[in-house]
Amino acid sequence: MTQVFNFSAGPAMMPKAVLEQAQAELLNWQEQQTSVMEVSHRGKLFIELITQADKDFRELYNIPENYKILFLQGGARGQFAAIPMNLIGEKGKALYLTSGHWSATAAKEARLFCEIDEINILEQSDTLKVANLDFSNVAEQYDYVHYCPNETISGVEIFDVPNVGNSVLVADMSSNILSREIDISKFGIIYAGAQKNLGPAGITIVIVREDLIGKARKSTPSIWNYEVQAKSDSMINTPPTFAWYLCSLVFKHLLKEGGVKAVEQRNQAKAKLLYDYLDQSEFYRNTVAIENRSLMNITFTTGNDELNAKFVKDATANGLQALKGHKVLGGMRASIYNAMPIEGVQALIAFMQKFAEENK
Fold first, then answer.
1. Catalytic residue flag (residue 327)
2. Is 54 a catalytic residue?
3. Fewest CB within 10 angstroms: 32, 80, 192, 196, which?
């Protein structure tokens, strides 16, 4: 049987070693003769698990002590609403930097809760390119500035951190969290759905600077109130315990594999391999400017919709799954998150070469 490589944009593949450990422990976690899904989330063993997960995640991402880590539900979309409810204060409005579908979706949701200004920072000419990132002259009139450093659909990544002066910078890192080293201290809030680099769908991580907690409007539901969640260790209701457990295993696995520095090196090598092939190909093309090419989501097309559909069908038959591009953009998309081995990228390139030869 052909080895299967899963290029899904999310839920995405997880490290094999993590799944194997979860499988081995499924019926007997911590010698309890029961699953982690079946124990009390307030019991001693589960509290030890989440305490260690917090410690491991801090070590992995070099998170300063003056930041809280919340493990919440509702996905990144839930945070689209929670952020304005928690951060809008005396200034009464926020600035949204849009560079694609998800940053624009976050801005649309925020309009339900506060006044916002929106600036499109994506230049669209022959290639997709991010324009100016210096907003220091305007940012301080806003309670916060929001952006999405990696647009999953288009494959646009912003590697430089926007300059927002003393304003609060908020980042939706759902699709590139833990993929490369960053300076957490430059951000007020970082949030991410787990289903790409952290674990399975169903849990969302919010990294929030402590001075931003306790400012929620009175009408904020308890489940979205950062102060309530922080005081309750993210457990004002029963949390997604199995998803939290799997995230804890991913953290340990990444630490064992050399941490985020080593992860970044592997991600750069994988992305370079595929982009180098695309750049020399006359059959496929990528439309993102070199300086904004995502390490996580690599988009490409043949320029022919029928040929694109045939590519996806044939790739699936050859064990290369989920390469169909998002319906918003079309074409193909290879999501090569942390768990994707370089062998998967090599197998994809080999198939692309064969397909190109057969379909000239």
1. no
2. no
3. 32
Strand 169-172 relative to strand 145-147: parallel, antiparallel, unpaired?
parallel
Token couple for 210: 């402590």
Among the listed residues 151, 175, 172, 145, the one whose alpha carbon sits nearest the alpha carbon of residue 100:
151
Residue numbers belonging to the annotated binding site for L-glutamate? 42
List, in order, residues 6 or more apart from 116 with CB less than 8 Å away.
Answer: 84, 93, 94, 95, 96, 107, 110
Identify the CA nearest to 167 among candidates 85, 87, 262, 261: 87
Q: Are strands 156-157 and 150-151 parallel, antiparallel or unpaired?
A: antiparallel
Domains with residue ranges and CATH for the chain: 17-256 (3.40.640.10), 259-358 (3.90.1150.10)
Where is the binding site, in residues?
42, 76-77, 102, 152, 172, 195, 237-238
- Is 0.85 surpassed by the pTM of this model? yes
For 304-356, how does the pLDDT look when each residue is reduced to its tens digit (9 = 90+)? 999 999 999 999 999 999 999 988 888 999 999 999 999 999 999 999 999 99
